[in-house]
Each structure stands twice: as structure tokens, then as C-alpha cells.
Specification:
6-stranded parallel beta sheet, elongated, about 425 residues, about 15% strand, disordered C terminus
Length: about 425
């Protein structure tokens, strides 16, 4: 039996579902040169229809159905899996997947990389000492780290005590062909009751979970209308996404008597079209790494109003491409909303500057090239060198990836 010379990368995540981290994995797989690497996605819990976004037909997605609690009981299963797959690289993401690193070491995986993509609501500022200790515990098993923001890079050095030479800081990249401004200005969004020619739409896109703090944006919208009642005629709020915070957002708007001025359609699959229908983008998160949605909004030519947390300040040039406000500060966010809505020409100029910044600093090509260097350096150090690769990634037609579950001997297709 012939051996495939392309190194296999095992991307390990907690759950392969809609999210910025997972979107970054998909972008990386879709744009790394086909002739250089093979890929497998290992989800400790579940794989959802999100896997359909992978365009390569040769990528398997494996769900381990982990129960709540520690990962160590999965080690026999992980060891068996890694020894069968024989990945050259295991690349884990965030704390929930970090526990896989000892299993990769025991299985003799040559290159072990861990990525820090952001923080959750239990550690919004990186001060959680338990999380710091856990990361230090697993540090000996990780050969190299990837930090998505300068904030996370400094956290690894200062709190986890990782030597700087073992860290590479790589910004997320955005597909500037998929996310782009409309040449004629904001376009009507399918199903949206607001007309961008008459209304000024500020919107947000994302999972409606605690760390994203969408109720603060809803309250800021209400407060902006109190500060400038004349804006009621044209200022409108769009909140795309689903989750436990959707109902509280609706309650805030209903209680204030402005529910008809907001549109909450739930989760959408046409995010680029939604972005092209907005005049401004808002992100009220309590914590972030490098926000994919901020990059997508900037690529779409939108000014960004975001909280000054995590890597947001790496992306938003204060006063040039948008505004930064303190987290959970309704008054500050409301005042920034008023500032944007009252000067739409300046807001549009900010959006154009944001698009230029994305093209210059946050392209998908730059991100892919940076990861290629990390992978190549790791493989070279381990004595496993990839074959020469094409300069540009080759895109293949979209096909449904295989979903493989432990205990299921046949391959299941993830059908709609």
C-alpha cells in the first residue's frame, strides 16, 4: 500500500459548529495548497452541518462525543485514533482542546501546536488563575503556540510563562472576495423590513451567548434614541444570530417600545449579503481574540463600533476605521452610535478606510502564509519536511465531507 507523502494535520477543536474559531479552521483548510497537506478535523464533542463549509472532498470530520468533564478518559480513544491516522501535526485550539496534547505526545506525533483564539465569559481578562495553572500544566507537551492577538501573545508570556520564541502571533484573515462593499451602497437584505435607502442600519452578527453581550447593544440602541429622538425616523437595529440572549434582547427592545425599529431574524447563512445591507457594524463583546466578524465588516466597507477588549484594538483604528468603547458601558456605546448615525458621510469614510486596512494587513493570503511557515518550521525541526507546494492554493469544487463517529464503521454523509 502506497503512503501519501503529504503531511496530515489533525485540527482538534471542542465542537465543530458555527463560530469564529471554527471559521478560521475552515478558511485555513480551504486555502492551504492541496498538494502540500492533508487534513482531518477532530471535534471532542459534535460535528454539525458547519462542516459543509469545507470545500475539499478529502477532509474527514471526526466527532468523539465527549461527555462533560475532563478529557483524560478519552486518551485511549485518542491514542488509537492518532496511531491510526498518524498525523504529522496535531493543532489544538483553545483551552477545551489543550488537554489533547499529552495524548498526541504519547502517540508520537512529531509536531504539536496549540492556538489561543480568545477567551470565554469565565476569563474575560485573563486573570483566572485556575486557567493559567491548567495552561502551565500542559505547556511541556506543546512545542509551539499560535496567538491570534498581541493581547493573547502577552498573556502566554506573562501568565503561562511560555518563552517568546515558542509563540507566533497570527491575525485571522478575511476573504475579501466574499466580503466586499456594494458598489451602489447598502443593498436591501432579504427578509429585512428596513430600506437602506431610507433607514440607517447598524447591525451585529454572532452567537447570542453571554460573552457576546448583545443586550448591551440593545440597551445602547434604546439609549441612543433617548439622546437624539430625531434618530427614531431612520436609525434601525439589526441583530443576526441565535442563542440564549435573543429573548432578553427582544425584551429590552419591547419594554422600551422600540421593538418595531429592530430586526432579529435568528441565524442566517447569507452573512456577506447581510453585511452589504448595513451602514455600520457593532460588536458589544465582553471578550474577544481576533474577531472574524469585525474583519468581515471591515472588508464589507463598514465602520466598526466595538468594545475595547482582547484583540479588537488590533483591528479597529480608533477614529479612523471606527470607535472603541469600554465593555458593558451602555452610555458610551449609545453616544458612539449617535456619533456615527448623525454623520453618515464620516461613517462611510471610516468604512472605506477599514476596507483598505483589511486589504493591507488582514488578508486571507497573509494568514495562510503565516500558518504555512509555522507548519513548515515545525516539520523541519522534527525532520519531517513537506514536498514543494504551489504558491497559491487550489480551490476544489464544494463537496460534502465525511462525518466519522467512533463505533460507526461506515462513513456517514452529513446531508441537509
Amino acid at each position: 500500500m502506497s503512503v501519501n507523502p503529504r503531511p496530515l494535520i489533525a485540527h482538534v477543536v471542542y465542537r465543530f459548529d458555527t463560530g469564529g474559531l471554527e471559521n478560521g479552521v475552515v478558511n485555513l483548510i480551504n486555502h492551504l495548497p492541496d498538494d502540500a497537506y492533508r487534513h482531518v478535523v477532530v471535534a471532542l464533542t459534535e460535528v454539525t452541518d458547519f462542516a459543509r463549509r469545507i470545500r475539499r472532498a478529502d477532509v474527514r470530520c471526526i466527532a468523539l462525543h465527549k461527555r462533560p468533564g475532563q478529557t483524560w478518559w478519552l486518551y485511549p480513544q485518542l491514542l488509537k485514533l492518532f496511531r491510526a491516522l498518524r498525523p504529522a501535526i496535531v493543532h489544538t485550539r483553545n483551552l477545551a482542546a489543550l488537554e489533547v496534547q499529552p495524548a498526541a505526545w504519547l502517540a508520537g506525533v512529531p509536531v504539536r501546536i496549540h492556538g489561543e483564539h480568545g477567551r470565554d465569559v469565565g476569563d474575560v481578562d485573563g486573570s483566572n488563575r485556575t486557567y493559567q495553572r491548567v495552561r502551565r500544566l500542559y505547556r511541556p507537551f506543546v512545542q509551539h503556540y499560535v496567538a491570534l492577538s498581541r493581547d493573547l501573545q502577552q498573556y502566554l508570556v506573562d501568565k503561562v510563562h511560555v518563552p517568546p520564541q515558542r509563540i507566533t502571533q497570527i491575525y485571522n484573515g478575511v476573504d475579501t472576495q466574499r466580503f466586499h462593499p456594494s458598489a451602489a451602497g447598502p443593498e436591501p437584505i432579504e427578509g429585512c423590513p428596513f430600506d437602506p435607502a431610507r433607514h440607517w442600519l447598524v447591525g451585529t452578527v454572532g452567537r447570542m451567548q453571554t460573552v457576546k453581550d448583545q443586550p448591551t447593544l440593545a440597551r445602547a440602541f434604546v439609549r441612543a434614541l433617548e439622546l437624539q429622538p430625531a434618530l427614531r425616523e431612520r436609525l434601525r437595529l439589526v441583530m443576526v444570530g441565535d442563542g440564549p440572549l435573543r429573548a432578553p434582547c427582544e425584551a429590552v427592545l419591547t419594554d422600551a417600545g422600540v421593538r418595531e425599529l429592530a430586526w432579529l431574524p435568528g441565524e442566517r447563512t447569507d452573512v456577506p449579503a447581510v453585511m452589504r445591507g448595513l451602514h455600520a457594524f457593532a460588536l458589544p463583546s465582553l471578550a474577544e481574540g481576533i474577531s472574524n466578524t469585525i474583519l468581515e465588516a471591515m472588508a464589507s466597507g463598514l465602520p466598526v463600533l466595538a468594545t475595547n477588549v482582547g484583540g479588537n484594538a488590533d483591528l479597529v483604528d480608533e477614529g479612523a476605521t471606527g470607535w472603541l468603547v469600554p465593555a458593558a458601558d451602555v452610555e458610551a456605546m449609545a453616544q458612539a452610535l449617535v456619533r456615527l448615525a448623525q454623520d453618515p458621510a464620516h461613517a462611510a469614510a471610516m468604512g472605506r478606510a477599514g476596507r483598505a486596512a483589511v486589504e493591507a494587513r488582514f488578508s486571507l493570503q497573509a494568514m495562510v502564509e503565516a500558518y504555512q511557515r509555522v507548519y513548515a518550521d515545525g516539520l523541519a525541526a522534527a525532520g519531517v519536511l513537506p514536498p514543494p507546494s504551489k504558491a497559491d492554493a487550489t480551490m476544489v469544487p464544494l463537496r460534502t465531507p465525511s462525518i466519522v463517529r467512533p463505533g460507526v464503521h461506515r462513513e456517514e454523509r452529513n446531508e441537509r
